[in-house]
Specification:
Length: about 150
């Protein structure tokens, strides 16, 4: 896509991120993306989360961060959230943001990027498979708290 800009995610993007996220999950529950983006900025990870901008409008986002010394990972990265406005899906925007993240982490000497996807999310599984993600040595565990 011509005029596609992949840039650092900013606090001012929170409303757009929320709009995109809500349109994907079709859920009216509002997530405080202002807080999420601000926390990543305060942690010095601002450049590890990106927005895709087309003709001045935010149409995608990717939120990631660096992991150090957790459960056998010396240093790695984690993609926590990714989303593209449904009107722009299938145009390579998610892939462009992922490539930006990969390049960024490679420059920092990080060689492993992780994410977690629901087993029944065929579209996300296909997306990450297309980026050469594979099963890792980790198993996601869950405990519900009542």
């Amino acid at each position: 896509m011509d005029n596609l800009l992949i840039r650092a995610l900013k606090k001012e993007d929170a409303e757009d991120v929320n709009r995109i996220y809500a349109s994907i999950v079709k859920n009216s529950e509002k997530i405080n993306f202002n807080r999420i983006i601000e926390e990543h900025s305060l942690a010095g990870c601002k450049a590890s989360s990106f927005a895709a901008e087309f003709d001045g409008k935010v149409i995608g986002f990717i939120v990631s961060y660096i992991l150090s010394g957790g459960f056998g990972i010396d240093k790695g990265a984690w993609i926590a959230l990714i989303g593209v406005d449904p009107k722009y899906m299938g145009k390579g925007i998610g892939k462009s943001m992922a490539q930006k993240i990969f390049s960024h982490y490679k420059d920092l000497g990080i060689n492993n990027v992780y994410t977690s996807v629901r087993w029944d999310s065929a579209d996300l599984l296909s997306f990450f498979s297309g980026l050469n993600f594979d099963r890792s040595n980790f198993i996601n565990l869950h405990k519900g708290l009542e």
